[in-house]
Amino acid sequence: MKKILFVTSEAHPLIKTGGLADVSGSLPKALAELSQDVRILLPNYQALKIQGQPKLISTLKVDNCQVEILETLLPDSSIPVWLVDYPEFFDLPGNPYNDAQGQAWPNNAQRFALFCRIAVEIAMNRAQLDWQPDIVHCNDWQTGLVPALLSLEKNRPASVFTIHNMAYQGIFPAADVISLNLPGQLWNPDGLEFYDMLSFIKGGIVYADHISTVSPTYALEIQTPEFGCGLEGLLSHRKAALSGIINGIDLEQWNPASDPYLDHHYQSKTLADKQANKTALQQQLGLPVDSNVPLLGLISRLVAQKGIDLILECLPELLEMPIQLVFLGAGDSAFEQQLQTQADLHPEKIALSLGYDERLAHLIEAGADIFLMPSRFEPCGLNQMYSQRYGTIPIVRKTGGLADTVTDSLPHSIADKTASGISFNEAGAGSLLEAIKRCLLLYNQPSTWKKIQTNAMRKDFSWRQSAEKYLQLYTSIQSENKPHESA
Ligand code: ADP
Ligand code: GLC
Q: Would residue 74 be called left, alpha or beta, if left means φ above 0 and alpha means ψ between -120 and 50 degrees?
């Protein structure tokens, strides 16, 4: 049995802004099912949805900050979640990264540096918790200083740094190196320095014993200029210690046969019952109730990554087609406004819900016929997997995890029963439109459509296999773990 400290800035259902939370809420559970001892470390944000009163388990002073560590459980599990309680940084309205007005917290470097320092104290068993992990598993830039600081320790646990998205790197002014009191050895171009700025993500990429990302295809893509966001050289330099492990999904939370957010349950054998969810969705959003019209859904952060501009560019032609569109999302105000304008102009065709709404997300997965995910890049992506499990055919761009989890519906893949969606190559509105047309042709062939739905619903997206891969990875780095040579 390994002791694993899972360090993350969000974990569903306690706090979520995107897929990192889904992974942090479900991978530890899958590891625990493989009999591992996992503890999650999370900042004690004001917005956390905790059941009951967390227990104070330790008080420690780091960098002149008096920090408390509280313990709660990941809901519906016996996994301890340790909360870094420092009210001045975390007990504030807003989300983990932005204030209530949507502006990045001005002291994000300080907030997450403190979080990382506490992770190191726990990792080195200096937090009076009487527990020393074998593995510290860090996620995204918010945890990047952990492998860097750990590399300076003797007899340290092995570290894994998982990249969920190269587009977010945690870049701050160089002056923060001093104000954060970071050890001088880490400050050089082969360390935390990135074009005279301080880069948190480099702390993970340079110093972790192993770097993983959330799909095999993305692991290759980030070694190229198109996807590496300026760090492709470093990533390919470390390619011997870089791999891709595809995310799984939580099969209990995303199960059309028992989803508590749905009034009408179904499974692959009772696909006709999916229809009642479509009716419920149309009714709820004020669209004309029509069982035949193809309903296309989208649930997304409204940012450039997700190809929202491609959809907007296609809209004039889409609006000529006999379809309905349901959009749920929040993000860049320009995208929000453009979608709102279109929804106001075409209320009989477009239903838009701006904001974050978990219940509606489940109803869209169940009620839509087709799911749109034309991402420009997608490290893994979860909604295309949720969609397949709900028999909602995803249209995806062939990139990252979308390429690894969706099989395009072509004559041969339909024949061999692997077809589970539609994928297209080029990040252009023309290609997206063509893919949508191809999908609608299949939609109009009910028996083929049903076969594709059934293939999609029967795919195995469980965490088990991926959790086993993480476990193998932990074992391999533990055996070769040695203090990192200084950069
Ligand atoms: P990313 O992490 O890049 O946003 P993923 O596909 O990995 O993309 O995960 C997104 C997660 O966030 C999914 O669980 C999705 O259902 C959820 N989500 C995104 N936007 C919303 C929203 N507006 N309301 C509810 N859930 C949302
Ligand atoms: C990131 C990526 C997304 C991935 C998620 C969880 O937010 O954008 O593709 O699914 O992390 O790993």
A: beta
- The residue assigned the tokens 């860049």 is 332
- If we measure between CA atoms, which residue out of 409, 413, 335, 400 comes closest to residue 374? 400
User: Does the Cβ of 248 fall within 6 Å of ligand 2?
Assistant: no
pTM > 0.90: yes or no: yes
Closest residue (by CA) to atom 12 of ligand 1? Answer: 18
The ligand 1 atom at the shortest distance from the C-alpha of residue 305 is: 3
Measure 249 CA to ligand 1 centroid, in angstroms.
13
Distance 17 CA to ligand 1 centre (A): 7
| Predicted pLDDT at 484 | 44
Binding site membership of 362 for ligand 2 (Cβ less than 6 Å):
no
Query: Which two structure tokens, joined as six digits, stand for 455?
Result: 């293939």
Query: Is the CB of 383 within 6 Å of ligand 1?
Result: yes
**Cβ contact 312:306 at 8 Å:** no
Ligand 1, atom 2, lies closest to the CA of 19
Q: Which domains does the chain have, with CATH numbers?
A: 3-248+464-479 (3.40.50.2000), 268-460 (3.40.50.2000)
| Confidence band for 263, pLDDT divided at 50, 70 and 90 | very high
Q: And the tokens for 454?
A: 């059934």
- CA gap 350, 80 in Å, rounded: 43
Rounded to an integer, the average pLDDT of 150-169 is 97
β-bridge mates for residue 230, sequence order: none
Each residue's pLDDT tens digit, 350-395: 999 999 999 999 999 999 999 999 999 999 999 999 999 999 999 9
Question: Which ranges of 56-161 does DSSP label H, i.e. alpha helix?
Answer: 87-90, 108-123, 145-150
